[in-house]
């Protein structure tokens, strides 16, 4: 069923944000102190803005996910879906059964398995506003591309200075709203991370794809990690002698949890939002989606067909399948929501009011010009979008090409002094890159990579004239055959040429060998190109196009740096108060209330689910294969509660243990694993999803339907006590 | 998803009924006056018990559906799904487009099309308790079969005396709770019924099979008929000169409708319930269901395959498909609900308390013996159930066999004096039977009947030894072939024999000819058997088995007459107050409140749906193909309401027009089309369905989940005004 049509009254975009809307920078909280109090939050806003003290000093990033310290001994709480890779790594490492399936509860520190070479816990130590410096650099640049380059080099200099002589620290300069603000962020990076507890897949991912994005939800989407450091207390590589990290602060659990209408906060690292986009930008996105959906649908069909061939392929492609399927649901949901809420028209209306306002201002012309410039830039970018997408997809869906592209690019960059290289390809980045590639290539099956790359190259052959990839066209021509009678895909290129090119790309892959990889990751361009690896040779052929793509993006970025801030300034003036910046992977705080919503005409979504729903959904078959031990524990708990016995983590009002809950907090991908805090800043849950009805929340927040989905901390605590033998962990959590 | 497991606290079965439970005989309402008042009903219970005055004098039966007079000129309101046959008849009769698809709003009396020869409006004129007479007859009989026969002949005598010299009246003696009470019911039967208004199928059956039994619902399941009589005011066959019937009373519309928590009543003719069954009876039913489901599934597959062959077959089999699919959903829903609510165990617990109570009573042994007798009888009946089912299905699913069986049976009965014949086969029944057969055979396609009969005969070949049908076995033997190597189905019968028998049954079907049929319906057994019709010859071969089945059922009925009343008396004594009898197609009143329910863990069903939901479900494709005219009218209405203009039938609190609503009223099939009355007895809606979660409500009522689904009268009124040009009908409705 399609989401119910509801006219929007979320009027952000130059209007005042609603109470629960906003992913605020911690430092902004003091500016919105009144709203925070009105929402029922009793923690001092100044305290919330302080990165050196709890609760925010407890909040960390895992890279793509958020997490929090919950004990003085470096225990970290996050989502189950954030540790899937770690569970797979640890399963392979111990050569035993799948920890993902069985779950895991380490009974002592010695039993805590390593989460793998790419696992990181990043503690944000400080944030320093450096906007003025960057603004000066941008203003001084002669061209847009020059502005982008100047920003890049200033950025690298800042980062280098920040990291200088501080091993274990990584710095970055985050850009807010296309260059409206720049902040130097200093993070301590802990690189020995271990698994402490995870429920079985059937609990952590209960409902799987069927329930993904959906309410009512019954996932036990939690996991516990522990960060380790060297005996000297400093970040260290994984080693037996390492000791638990002692965080500056850790969250206190509130075992009473929250109930409907309670105030809640979420602190974490939301990835990306587009809340301040123009109507034209939204329209371009809406137009792009159907083609994206078609591509995703075809690719998913192919991947699933491959998975059907063997149990091994099924497992190996499961992450790709899950990622594509999640993306498909996201794009479809956005498309549905755009249509249901008539988003483009709504934004056009908001924009019209902004334009009318601007026309009335003495200095309004600047804002109007900025709006035009932003729209023009967006249209230009959209034209090249199909080519960018194919190039991106090649490295995202094939581990071999990802490695080949990275290695060749690194070799190109190595020709320049370290400081002048593109971020992510400096010497300091090599170990992390190596870890990532090593994990990705561990169990690659060329049988699966080949048809997927074939699919993408066929797509490239069909690209419109304005978006051709020259290096690929040359390769297609090279593999053409005058006797070929196969289907013409586009630009005279036949399916046969694509097939032969794919054969060539996979004819001599050596990168899967760890030693070869390790050597090439540190080699010069000449050595890399002479390596004889067919995938690397393919990467070399595409290098000019990838460079062009990079330059194009750099120019676009430069243009963005000079236009978006002007528009944002006008929007803020229109709003008459500070705007929260779009999410950009940096630390943010959002606050709201535990609250249901109008689900469908005739149905109301209640804000909490319970163990009763876990039982009701259980079918015995995945994804609703609740383990028997869980079902038995539920029966026992219900019997205890019915007979009036003590059930420590039960909710007397509900007559059972709560499982998941909804809130009006404003979140997005990257927030996964964020601690949910109550009005006093205590740990009451973990954010893990949004509801389907708010799938367009990356674009717009609507208080009537935008909801975050959290797992209730009491489900975790109850499970530790009643199902997984985690009494020692309850003790460590201070209970 | 399976219904949520909820322990029952509905304790009827010898315990006190909950406030909203009960399909009360009108005469019982004075006994439950206090509860009626407590529920908020302000109509005087004595008035509600009076069949000569409104509101109950307005309530009529259509045979299988309920309905009500809503104007002084014989206008009748009922459900859309109760007039599907009439719409099909009228479409064929006028040779035009399908009125089912397009809907219909007659702009004058002259435009009201005839609903067809089988359409009836039955007005209950009086009910007279005759229990004492029947009790005496039963007590005097020497055997159980004799008791059944004696009841049958007493019944016929009563009916004959009642109808004597009163043309247009039909009388019946209704049996309550297996003979606990007998009531002589006198009905005036109006046989010229015409269509006045029906919405298009896409409105009346919006959501179709997908939404059937489901909430939230958005069906506009209403229709308006008009009853006509001869110029003398007496019931008459359809004729141009006929005039509208003037009912003794008609309902007054309350255009303000009802809202959550308002008291509502439903008066109508519920078909069958089994609320007072023993645990063993429930258990036997639960055991029978999986086999029934398997059979329904296979038959549905076959029917749908046949429907795929041509547009004509698709249409012709649509009623059969809908019936089977509805039955499948019913049985599956019952099975799910039985399991979810652990019904058998619950009933066993209730029964245990009854037994304990009975053991403490001085005369308790009688109740205990009755319980044993009822259980023994049920087990005996269950053994023959598979054979009864096949025999029943043959005439239910094949119109040709239905006609052949009826004609041959009628000829057998005709050998006896009219008064001694089986009810339904007396001379007075012939015209109605002829009308029914004429309609059923109008467009029979043997191409479809043949494989369906083949399926059922193959099933008969597989029956267990205890339940063989001898006549069929003889026919199978007759069509056996020593060279046949096809699959052996059961008892040595091969598929080939079944196929040859089917060929024989359909080798010379003449019944589809109206004249042949009309002659045979009035012919003697000899003439019928010499007719040369192959289907009639088949019916003749099965006559001994059908007679045996009749005798078996008669004996079972006699046993039931002597055991069930003893059990009911004991249960009533245990309850300490009157019990409402199980539904048996007679006039009943139930009352309750407009109320939602706990839908799933994390979701609440609200008690009302609105036009907003109609739009949200619209996909443009059946069954969610809301007509454009409706969608346009909705947009216009929403704009009017938003801008504060008058919308006569809008609900200011909801900001739109209500569509359907839920109540706690206790209803079942047969109640369809029943008027829903408000606390003052005014017309506020039409009952048309129950929710899936209460699908076992034929067996047990549970206040927490048993809900009736009604269409709000305001959706009808609004549609007449805004969509269908029915201003003249609003006027006739007194608005």
Structural write-up:
The structure is a homodimer of 735-residue chains. The first copy, chain A, has 735 residues and is an alpha+beta fold. The first copy, chain A, has three domains: 1-120 and 191-287 and 596-735, no CATH class; 122-190, no CATH class; 381-569, no CATH class. Chain A is built from 25 helices and 21 strands. In chain A, the strands form four sheets. In chain A, strands 1, 2, 3, 4, 5, 6, 7, 8, 9 and 10 form a ten-stranded antiparallel beta sheet that branches. The relative contact order of chain A is 0.18. The model of chain A is unreliable at 1-12 (pLDDT under 50). Chain A binds chain B through residues 1-5, 215-218, 599-606, 608-610, 612-613, 615-617, 619, 660, and chain B through 1-5, 215-218, 599-606, 608-610, 612-617, 619, 660. Strand 16 of chain A pairs antiparallel with strand 16 (603-605) of chain B.
Q: What is the number of strand segments of chain A?
A: 21
Number of alpha- plus pi-helical segments of chain A: 25
List the chains of the largest interface with their residue counts.
A-B, 27 and 28 residues
State the end-to-end CA separation of chain A. 44 Å
Structural domain tally of chain A: 3
Poorly predicted ranges of chain A:
1-12
Oligomer: homodimer
Class inferred from helices and paired strands of chain A: alpha+beta
Q: Which percent range fits the helix content of chain A? A: 40-55%
Give a quick precis of the structure:
With about 725 residues, chain A is of the alpha+beta class.
């Amino acid at each position: 069923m399609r989401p119910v049509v509801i006219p929007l009254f979320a009027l952000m975009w130059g209007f005042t944000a609603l109470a629960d809307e906003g992913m605020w920078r911690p430092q902004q909280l003091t500016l919105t102190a009144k709203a925070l109090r009105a929402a029922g939050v009793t923690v001092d806003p100044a305290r919330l803005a302080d990165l050196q003290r709890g609760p925010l000093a407890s909040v960390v990033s895992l890279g793509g996910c958020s997490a929090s310290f919950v004990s003085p001994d470096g225990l970290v709480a996050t989502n189950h879906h954030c540790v899937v890779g770690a569970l797979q790594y640890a399963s392979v490492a111990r050569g035993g059964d799948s920890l993902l399936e069985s779950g895991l509860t380490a009974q002592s520190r010695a039993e805590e398995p390593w989460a793998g070479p790419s696992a990181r816990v990043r503690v944000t130590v400080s944030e320093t506003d450096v906007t003025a410096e960057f603004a000066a650099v941008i203003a001084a640049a002669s061209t847009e591309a020059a502005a982008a380059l100047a920003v890049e080099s200033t950025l690298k200099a800042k980062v280098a200075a920040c990291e200088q002589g501080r091993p274990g620290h990584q710095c970055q300069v985050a850009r807010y709203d296309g260059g409206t603000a720049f902040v130097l962020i200093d993070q301590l990076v802990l690189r020995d991370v271990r698994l402490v507890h995870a429920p079985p897949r059937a609990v952590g991912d209960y409902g799987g794809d069927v329930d993904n994005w959906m309410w009512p939800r019954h996932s036990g989407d939690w996991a516990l990690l522990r960060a380790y450091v060297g005996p000297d207390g400093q970040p260290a590589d994984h080693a037996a002698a390492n000791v638990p990290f002692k965080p500056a602060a850790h969250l206190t659990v509130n075992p009473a949890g929250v109930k409907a209408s309670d105030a809640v906060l979420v602190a974490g690292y939301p990835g990306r939002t587009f809340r301040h986009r123009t109507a034209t930008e939204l329209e371009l996105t809406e137009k792009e989606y159907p083609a994206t959906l078609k591509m995703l649908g075809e690719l998913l069909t192919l991947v699933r067909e491959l998975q059907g061939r063997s149990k091994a392929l099924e497992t190996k492609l499961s992450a790709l399948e899950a990622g594509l399927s999640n993306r498909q649901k996201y794009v479809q949901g956005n498309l549905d929501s755009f249509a249901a809420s008539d988003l483009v028209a709504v934004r056009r209306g908001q924009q019209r009011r902004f334009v009318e306002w601007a026309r009335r201002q003495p200095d309004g012309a600047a804002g109007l010009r900025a709006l035009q410039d932003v729209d023009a830039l967006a249209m230009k970018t959209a034209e090249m979008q199909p080519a960018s997408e194919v190039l991106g997809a090649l490295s995202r869906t094939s581990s071999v090409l990802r490695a080949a592209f990275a290695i060749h690019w690194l070799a190109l960059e190595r020709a320049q002094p370290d400081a002048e290289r593109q971020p992510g390809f400096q010497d300091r980045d090599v170990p992390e890159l190596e870890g990532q590639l090593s994990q990705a290539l561990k169990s690659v099956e060329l049988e699966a990579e080949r048809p997927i790359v074939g699919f993408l190259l066929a797509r490239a052959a069909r690209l419109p004239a304005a978006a051709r990839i020259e290096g690929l066209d040359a390769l297609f021509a090279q593999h053409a055959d005058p006797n070929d009678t196969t289907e013409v895909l586009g630009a005279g290129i036949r399916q046969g040429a694509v097939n032969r090119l794919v054969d060539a790309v996979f004819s001599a892959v050596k990168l899967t060998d760890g030693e070869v990889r390790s050597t090439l990751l540190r080699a010069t361009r000449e050595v890399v190109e002479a390596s004889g690896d067919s995938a690397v040779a393919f990467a070399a052929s595409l290098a000019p196009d990838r460079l062009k793509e990079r330059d194009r993006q750099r120019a676009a970025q430069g243009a963005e740096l000079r236009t978006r801030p002007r528009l944002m300034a006008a929007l803020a003036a229109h709003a008459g108060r500070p705007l929260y910046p779009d999410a950009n992977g940096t630390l943010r705080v959002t606050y709201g209330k535990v609250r249901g919503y109008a689900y469908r005409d005739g149905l109301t979504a209640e804000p909490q689910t319970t163990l009763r729903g876990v039982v009701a959904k259980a079918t015995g078959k995945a994804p609703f294969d609740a383990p028997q031990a869980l079902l038995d524990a539920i029966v026992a708990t219900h019997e205890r509660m019915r007979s009036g016995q003590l059930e420590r983590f039960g909710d007397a009002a509900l007559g059972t243990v709560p499982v998941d809950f909804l809130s009006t907090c404003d979140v997005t991908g990257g927030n996964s694993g964020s601690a949910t805090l109550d009005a006093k800043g205590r740990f009451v849950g973990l954010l893990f999803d949004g509801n389907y009805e708010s799938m367009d929340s990356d674009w717009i927040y609507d208080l009537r339907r935008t909801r975050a989905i959290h797992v209730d901390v009491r489900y975790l605590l109850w499970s530790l006590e009643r199902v997984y033998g985690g009494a020692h962990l309850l003790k460590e959590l201070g209970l």
